[in-house]
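Sharing a chain and its predicted structure for anyone who wants a worked example. Both blocks are below, sequence first, tokens second.
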Amino acid sequence: MANQKPWKLKRHTRHIEHQWSQSDILFTVAMKAPVALTYEDLQDFPDDGYRRELIHGQLLVSAAPVPKHQRAVFRLGSLLGAACPSHLEILPAPCDWAVSEDTVFEPDLMVVHRESVGPKHIEGIPLLVVEVLSPSTKDTDNTLKRYEYEQAGVPAYWLVDPDVPSLTVLSLDSGIYTETARVVGNESYDTKWPYQVTITPLELVS
């Protein structure tokens, strides 16, 4: 990243200070911290519109999403919410899913059991995780997050590309994600996991 300034971390009695200007963060970037960060450390960062996640103690920062991204998140969340049974809940970002003390994700959408919802974060494994791709996040969503969600045991991972538009469905099979469906434009995806719902990618963006 041409304009990125060096990232520095200072810890004084568990106080975290990050040093960059907001204009520096144009893409999703993984910041190599001199010490491994924890979920508690994340609470010390300012609420400035950036998504901050932890992967094994390393900081992942994403810029604020664009309107097309948010439109797809809202419409998909509404579809999932309308069909959601009472024992489950749909949660959009920003909402932390604490996989462990040093790994914390903030997916665009999650379907979770209600008993998994803690006072500050999701404490169990989501039944479904959804990421809506953007130019700054699509590589991370397709590779790093795919691997981490797979390792965490998330049964289903959906990737929505609003630019196509398309929906790619990954299902966990013997601990490995396999692509079980991909629909584009006016094509519809009918699923029974995590419950019965029909998704048409074009309807998420138009």
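Comments welcome. The two ends are 33 Å apart (CA to CA).
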